Amino acid sequence: MRYWWVNQNQTYRQEVKGGFLWSPKLTADGRRNEFYENMTKVEPGDLVFSFAETLVKAVGTVTAPAESSEKPDFGGAGHYWDQEGWHVQVSWHEVSKPVHPKSFVAELIPHFQGKYDPLQKNGNGNQGVYLAEISAGFAQVLLDKLDYRPPALELELTDDEIADEKALANLFGRTDIGATQKQQLVKSRRGQGVFRSNLQLNEDRCRLTGVKEINLLVASHIKPWSVSSDAEKLDGCNGLLLAPHIDRLFDRGLISFEDDGRVLKSSSVSPTVWKAWHLEGPLNGGAFSEKQSAYLAYHRKERFKP
Length: 306
What we know:
The chain is α+β, with helices and mostly antiparallel strands.
C-alpha cells in the first residue's frame, strides 16, 4: 500500500461525492507536472487523504488504476484546465471529526520526504500540489489523529480486474490494429459487440439459473480478457451467459465447471450463500463443447479457488 495526499479546495464536493480523483495531464502552459503524473502511479488499495479548507476531511481507498478521461462536471471550478486528464476511482469516507494538520505539524515533520511534500514546515499547504505521495509514518499520524481505520473489507479490484485495466490502457496505445478492431476488443471487455454476438450463437441461457432473458444476463469471458489473445477476446466459445450473481462467483473463481457440466464450488463461500442463492447440493449446468472445454480447463487451473 502507498499513501497519498490530495488538495481538493476547488473540487472536494464533486470528487468525494462522485467517488473519484481527476487532474489534467499537463499544466495550463503545457508543461508536465509531478502532481498530475502521480495519478498514473496510484494502485488499487492505496489510501488517499483529502485536504480542503485547511482540514483533512475524508479518507479514500483507490479502487481502480488511472484512466484517460474527459473532465467531469466541476461547475465553475477548473475552467482553465484541459478537457482531457486522468481519472482515478476512489471509495471515499468522510470523517466525523476533520483535523487541522497545522495544529500538529511538529509530529508530521519527521515524516516529510522532500520537495514534493504537501505541507510546509509551518503547517501551511504547498501551493501547486494536487496529488502528493506521503510516507507511511506521515499517514499513520493522520490516521491516529482522525481516529480512523480503513474498513477491513474495503473492496479492491481483483487481480484480473486490475490486469484488465492495465491491458485496456495498453490496447488504446497499440498501433498494429485499426480503429474498428480496437473498438470491438474494447467492447468485448464489457461483454458487448461481436464477442456477445458470437457468444449468443453458443449459449442462450444462464446454465445455473435457467434464465433466458438475454438482456438480464452477463456475457462473461471464461479465460480472463486481460490474458486472452485478440482472437480469444472475441471467441464466442470463450464465454458464458450468466445471471449477475453467478457471473460474480465465476469471475472470482468461486465456482467453475467440469467439461460434463458438473459445478465446482469453492469451500471459501459460506453454506448460507449457497442456500440463499439456491445453489446448495450437486449442480450440473450441462455438457460443454470441445472448444469451450479448452477454455474451462484454463479456468479450473488458473482461476478456481477450491
